[in-house]
Amino acid sequence: MRIKLVAGNWKMNKSLEEGTQLVSDILAQLPPLNGRVVFATPYIHLSSVAPLLKGREGVYLAAQNCHQEEKGAYTGEISASMLRSVGVDYVLIGHSERRQYFGENNELLAKKVDITLSKGIKPIFCCGEPLEIREAGTHDDYVAAQLEASLYHLTEEQFRQIVIAYEPIWAIGTGRTATSAQAQEMHAGIRARIAAKYGAEVANDTTILYGGSANAGNAQDLFSQPDVDGGLIGGASLVAADFVAIVGAM
Ligand code: PGA
User: Fold this and answer.
1) Residue 234 in 3-state DSSP?
2) How far is the CA of 82 from the centre of ligand 1 (A)?
3) What's residue 173's pLDDT?
4) Are residues 198 and 177 in contact, defined by beta-carbon separation less than 8 angstroms?
5) What angle do CA 115, 122, 152 make, to 5 degrees?
6) Mean pLDDT for the chain overall
């Protein structure tokens, strides 16, 4: 079954006090859920946010990254098992900012996907093209190559744990959202590629999120597309009323 989902990616924002307040405000206003809500907080907030989510059906905790190795001498890094030990359910893998600023490539991301799955955490795998690729008209192949290189080594059972987030880089934090038609076209294309690799049933069950300047004003339009199953929300996830409205549009 395909699960709808809205995830808030806080990126490097909010003090601990501001973050726990934001979660409390959102939880107090959440409408009846039509899918899952995920909070992707900074690492140091996870242990404090986890107890706030306890007993709340449909609400999950995510990290924004994790290291690709089990454990060891990697100063400053956080492993997937550490994340699991504080109650993390999902982890963002391959966000375009990780790819751009931290040199994360498709091969490294495949390792992160593997370690995450092995610890019982679901990857939210981010893909999406830069502006020049969109303008050259090769965005379809570009995104297909990202999926192939980082995910297609997975078994069907493993792939079923993956959530895909399509985030055109030109739309992230720019206020320039993809139109709902552009999002639908890409999502349908991604689903068709998954069907070719894993079969129609797996493809139909895969949750594919849109990300990139989604907000309270455009969420309804985006989410009404048949292949858009929710959103990965950056800026608008930092304001309780906006995030609640986006969840309501799911
Ligand atoms: P944005 O970010 O909603 O601020 O564009 C989305 C993301 O980077 O996941």
Assistant:
1) coil
2) 26
3) 87
4) no
5) 70
6) 97
Q: Which residues pair with residue 245 across a beta bridge?
A: none
Q: Domain of 201?
A: 5-248
Residue 95 among the catalytic residues: yes
Q: pLDDT tens for residues 157-204?
A: 999 999 999 999 999 988 888 899 999 999 999 999 999 999 999 999
102-159 pLDDT, tens digit each: 999 999 999 999 999 999 999 999 999 999 999 999 999 999 999 999 999 999 999 9
CA separation, residue 70 to residues 5, 64, 114, 116 (Å): 28, 17, 11, 10
For 153-177, b where at least 16 C-beta lie within 10 A, e where not — what string?
A: ebeeeebeebbbbbbbbbbbeeeeb
Q: Can you tell me whether residue 2 is helix, strand or coil?
A: coil
Nearest CA to ligand 1 atom 3: 234
3-state secondary structure of 230: strand
Among 95, 172, 243, name the best residue to mutate to test ligand 1's pocket (greatest count of ligand atoms within 8 A of Cβ): 172
Whether the Cβ atoms of residue 211 and residue 169 lie closer than 8 Å to each other: no
Residue carrying the six token digits 């992230």: 172
CATH code (residue 32): 3.20.20.70
Among candidates 234, 224, 226, which has minimal Cα distance to 190?
Answer: 226
Three-state DSSP state, 37: strand
- Quote the number of domains for the chain: 1
- For ligand 1, is residue 154 a contact (CB within 6 Å)? no
